[in-house]
């Protein structure tokens, strides 16, 4: 089972100059938790999460109300660990689990963003595998009884 078969292709992305308020709007509009940050060539340069934005919002709320939030470049994670599309899903699952990541960007040979794998994607795979196994078990039970 390869990453390319399960990744979300062409994920929503932002540039480093995107205002934090715009990133927040995108999180809400698309109901996502991670935004890859790409340069003008589509290469992965960072990652920002809804948690990053939430933490910033909390820090910037003062007694006198919200302050300027800046751009995602100031809050994004740099040097993001990524994977390639031809990686095995088992290796990807272990990396997500062991490092407690919410996602892994999928990049090509020149670091261009190809897709993303999230913990939600991994749950969908698990559900599909369990459902398939339950169908096989039911068929085996029916054959044993018949």
TrEMBL record:
A family per Pfam: CBS
Respond yes or no to whether keyword Lipoprotein is given for this record. Answer: no
Keywords assigned by UniProt, alphabetized = CBS domain, Repeat
Q: Which CDD domains match?
A: CBS_pair_AcuB_like
Q: Which InterPro entries match?
A: CBS_dom, CBS_dom_sf, CBS_domain-containing
Supply the Gene3D superfamilies for this chain. Answer: CBS-domain
Mind telling me what this protein is named?
CBS domain-containing protein
Which source organism?
Eiseniibacteriota bacterium
């Amino acid at each position: 089972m390869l990453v390319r078969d399960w990744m979300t292709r062409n994920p929503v992305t932002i540039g480093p100059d995107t205002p934090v308020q715009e990133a927040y709007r995108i999180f809400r509009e698309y109901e996502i938790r991670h935004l890859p940050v790409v340069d003008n060539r589509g290469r992965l340069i960072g990652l920002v999460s809804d948690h990053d934005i939430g933490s910033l919002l909390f820090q910037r709320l003062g007694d006198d109300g919200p302050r300027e939030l800046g751009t995602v470049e100031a809050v994004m994670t740099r040097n993001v660990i990524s994977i390639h599309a031809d990686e095995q899903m088992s290796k990807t699952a272990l990396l997500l689990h062991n490092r407690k990541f919410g996602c892994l960007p999928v990049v090509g040979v020149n670091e261009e963003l190809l897709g993303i794998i999230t913990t939600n994607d991994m749950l969908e795979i698990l559900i599909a595998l369990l459902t398939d196994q339950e169908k096989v078990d039911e068929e085996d039970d029916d054959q044993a009884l018949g």
